[in-house]
Amino acid sequence: MKQIKHFNAFIILLLLSGCAASNDIQLEKVTETSEYLHCDKVFSNSRDSIIQLNQIMIQTGTIDTTDERSFKAAIIHIQGKEVILDLVKAHQSHSERHEQYTGKGYKLELNYEPKNLGNDTMYIGNCEIWQGKLHSDIKVEGIRNNL
Question: What global pTM score does this model have?
Answer without folding.
Answer: 0.82
